[in-house]
Structures
1.
Amino acid sequence: MSLWKIIDKVKGFIVYDSDKEFYAKVFPESIERKDLMRLRKMRIEDLSAVLEIESKNYNFPWSDGIFRDCLKSLNYSCWVCEELNNVIGYSIVSMAVGEAHIMNICVDPAVQKQGVGNKLLENMIELANKKADTIFLEVRPSNRAAILLYEKRGFNEIGVRKGYYPAVKGQREDAVILALDLVSLFKE
Ligand SMILES: CC(C)(COP(=O)(O)OP(=O)(O)OC[C@H]1O[C@@H](n2cnc3c(N)ncnc32)[C@H](O)[C@@H]1OP(=O)(O)O)[C@@H](O)C(=O)NCCC(=O)NCCS
């Protein structure tokens, strides 16, 4: 493809997107939410929105410092999903040779059950697939929504970590370990 054709194609996408944003503002009913969602890498400036969503979702939210450490580390890939320039969800995956680990995936409660979690998860799988053969994660057994999200994508339970999570009244909750074999999914 010639350079001009590539430039035209890119321009087409940009115009298309800004058109959609215009229609979304003027005729909100005419545009589907999934058409306005975009993924991009997380930046320090996103942290106030990220921390707000984090605290709405978890009884034991990550601190600002944990997110900053993830952003600094070369082994972590941190992403946000935004809609009309508002952060509505985020994900963090750690990557080492051979293994990837989903550290966090979180969606603003106001827009849950509309495909944002799925979009963030697909992106992490795609990133992990470039470096790893397996992607792992821990989840609370009580977290039905998350377990269904992962199982729908093909993750399987491979074990339990006893007392992994803090729980109310100083107690601990087990974690279920789930894994997705990227080799059989993409590389065979
Ligand atoms: C788990 C979470 C990220 C899902 O995000 P989401 O944007 O609501 O998920 P999606 O709309 O993309 O749903 C994808 C699939 O997940 C499952 N799912 C998600 N929320 C669900 C719910 N409340 N009840 C049942 N299934 C649910 C469904 O299988 C769904 O597919 P379907 O819409 O075809 O039924 C979100 O609920 C969240 O942020 N929870 C709090 C943070 C958290 O627990 N993170 C996981 C830590 S391990």
2.
Amino acid sequence: MRPRACHAPQRLRTAAFAAVCALLPMAPALAQEPAVQQAQGRAVYRKWCAPCHDPGVTHPGTHALTVKYQGVKSGVLLEWTDLPAAMVKVLVRHGISVMPQFRKTEISDADLDALAAFLSRNTR
Ligand code: HEC
């Protein structure tokens, strides 16, 4: 049996190491800072969700959730502590009851990621 060529893996490792070194300075730009993402998420919320979900029963989402949860938890979405990011994404893309679904041309995937991170910020 011929011994396996052991140079290729070594070369690969060297190339991978070089690639990682080259990308390191870009890391902060690639991984979005939590604070930046929160700000983006808040902006998306203000534009698309606040009209229905801001505090006050004149907002239809807040009204509906106040009735739905009967004081078990707040009707105000921003006060929830049990709203996983994945749940936000499903509800936004599919809608629920009279809440409409939102298209990717309205809320992009990146905006939805930020929105979900913002709304789940108090959820452990
Ligand atoms: C046109 C009004 C309207 C808009 C805009 C709206 N919602 Fe809603 N939303 C509602 C209503 C009404 C309900 C309650 C539905 C029900 O009865 O279960 C609701 C429920 C929810 C719930 C809770 C679901 C549950 O029953 O526990 C979440 C989470 C939610 N909305 C997130 C969002 C997000 C995020 C946005 C912005 C992208 C948004 N909504 C925009 C009206 C709206």
